[in-house]
Design brief:
Elements lengths: L2 E4 L4 E3 L7 E6 L5 H16 L3 E7 L3 H11 L5 E3 L4 H6 L6 E5 L4 E2 L4 E2 L1 H5 L4 H4 L6 E2 L13 H5 L35
Parallel strand pairs: 3-4, 4-5
Antiparallel strand pairs: 1-2, 1-5, 3-6, 6-8, 7-9
């Protein structure tokens, strides 16, 4: 659980929403897709009384206040200093959304991008829970397309210093990849 400064003043803890479902969305005032998502979140906030929308944003208070006023947002917005809360959830991108159930447990996989978030969560998925992971628990394992499983996949670029090649395999090294042209030599 976390406690962050509210944009309007004071603090807000995720634990305050225990007993309610929460759509937790990570945003940034300079994120264009986040601006596209905002009207959908506002509509969701007004139409779905069973769901609390909570936005975690970055940067300074004044920049966020201007953005919230410009977009006409009425749901709570809290500020993380840098990426400290994003780090707990394992994603460093915006917009990113998580559905948290009434017990404070992650109720679904991460949604990344405008459409996956605003088309989600449909009513029938709100009460399904594929995993029982405490939201924001240190060391919690989240289903995430950018996790260690993909880092072990030889077709994904590997980070430097991982001891593996930093480029994906070429078609002649991976028979499942179909390519009509021979691979270009590496320089």
């Amino acid at each position: 659980m976390f406690r962050l400064a509210r944009l309007e003043g004071g603090d807000l803890a995720l634990e305050e929403y225990r007993g309610r479902q929460v759509l937790l969305v990570f945003s940034d005032p300079q994120c264009g897709p986040c601006d596209q998502l905002a009207p959908h979140l506002e509509r969701l906030h007004h139409e779905r009384r069973d769901l609390q929308v909570l936005m975690v944003s970055r940067q300074d208070v004044e920049t966020n206040r201007q953005k919230v006023a410009k977009l006409g947002l009425t749901f709570p917005v809290v500020l993380q200093k840098s990426w400290e809360i994003s780090l707990l959830y394992g994603m460093f991108a915006t917009p990113v959304g998580y559905l948290i159930d009434e017990q404070g447990v992650l109720a679904s996989d991460v949604a990344v991008g405008v459409e996956p978030i605003w088309r989600w969560p449909p009513a029938e998925r709100l009460h399904q829970r594929p995993t029982a992971q405490p939201a924001c628990a240190p060391g919690a394992r989240l289903r995430n397309p950018f996790t260690r499983a993909n880092l072990r996949n030889p077709d994904y670029p590997q980070p430097k210093g991982s001891g593996q090649k930093a480029t994906p395999r070429t078609s002649h090294e991976n028979p499942t990849r179909k390519s009509k042209r021979p691979p270009k030599p590496l320089r």
